[in-house]
TrEMBL record:
Chain ranges of the BAH domain: 34-171
Database matches in PANTHER family: OS08G0421900 PROTEIN (PTHR46364)
Gene Ontology molecular functions: chromatin binding
PROSITE patterns: BAH
Coiled coil: none
Domain of life assignment: Eukaryota
Source species: Glarea lozoyensis (strain ATCC 74030 / MF5533)
Disordered: annotated segments: 219-256
Biased composition (Basic and acidic residues): 242-256
SUPFAM superfamilies the UniProt entry points to: FYVE/PHD zinc finger (SSF57903)
InterPro entries for the chain: BAH_dom (IPR001025), BAH_sf (IPR043151), Znf_FYVE_PHD (IPR011011)
Protein name as it appears in the record: BAH domain-containing protein
Length: 256
């Protein structure tokens, strides 16, 4: 049901709307008690949304989500909205150039996309407002302004270009220059000259690499990488470790 491959079942030809509708701009429209206005977010029934008489409780991901840009109507029975689609990360098409942080090669979801994350797009479509299933509470998250708190509601921080399949850049974290997934804890270095957030695996790799180098230096040996895969960690088979959750992060970072 990827939006780049086919239209929503509720989609209507933009040309048809222009031809048939009066040039009347409705700031809002009410449907079954809900009032929809410009710039609000809405749930839109999709091909996977359970029928109204289905006993299954629909989840958020049974719906598409869109941002209403404009509501227009020919009359009370023919009301349409111009919407910009929001993507669930699982719906993102694969990038034209492979990215190291793709969850899988067949799709565009990245490892930093959270469970409540949406991606805004420039994919516009006209839909019948009768396909709306209710309002969606979606907030924009600016990591620089709002901090790094974990999100427990629908949010978006990134945009997707339908033409190029490119995602907009977001704030970098960690020594790997990667990104923050709000569902995965990160560790902050409380050194006044550092103050960066670190991914768990990056923290482990960096600490063990430094310890391995100290061991080699103390023993007078040198690390021999000949014949070793570039993906193999220098400490592999010699050292292992994990962050101790009960200890202050700075104790572990002091070894770095």
């Amino acid at each position: 049901m990827a939006k780049v491959k086919k239209q929503s079942p509720a989609a209507v030809s933009l040309k048809r709307i222009k031809d048939e509708m009066e040039d009347v701009d409705y700031a809002k429209d009410s449907i079954v008690g809900d009032t929809y206005g410009n710039d609000c977010f809405v749930y839109v029934r999709s091909t996977t949304t359970p029928a109204e008489n289905d006993t299954q409780e629909p989840s958020m991901k049974n719906f598409w989500i869109a941002r209403v840009l404009q509501v227009r109507a020919k009359d009370a029975s023919h009301v349409y909205a111009l919407v910009a689609w929001m993507y669930w990360p699982d719906e993102l098409p694969k990038p034209k150039k492979p990215s190291a942080d793709q969850v899988n090669k067949a799709g565009g979801k990245r490892t930093y996309h959270g469970a409540y994350e949406l991606v805004a797009s420039n994919y516009l479509e006209v839909v019948d407002v009768l396909s709306f299933a209710g309002k969606a509470d979606v907030q924009q998250w600016d990591e620089d302004e709002d901090g790094d708190q974990i999100r427990s509601q629908l949010y978006w921080r990134q945009t997707f270009s339908r033409e190029t399949h490119a995602l907009s850049p977001i704030r970098e974290h960690c020594i790997c220059k990667g990104h923050y997934n709000p569902d995965v804890p990160m560790y902050i270095c409380d050194n006044a000259e550092c103050k960066i957030w670190l991914h768990k695996q990056c923290l482990i790799d960096h600490t063990l690499t430094k310890e391995f180098e100290k061991i080699n230096l103390a023993s007078g040996s040198t690390s021999n990488s000949k014949g070793r895969s570039t993906k193999t960690k220098p400490y592999a088979g010699v050292l292992s470790g994990k962050p101790e959750e009960r200890a202050p992060t700075k104790d572990l970072l002091s070894k770095m």
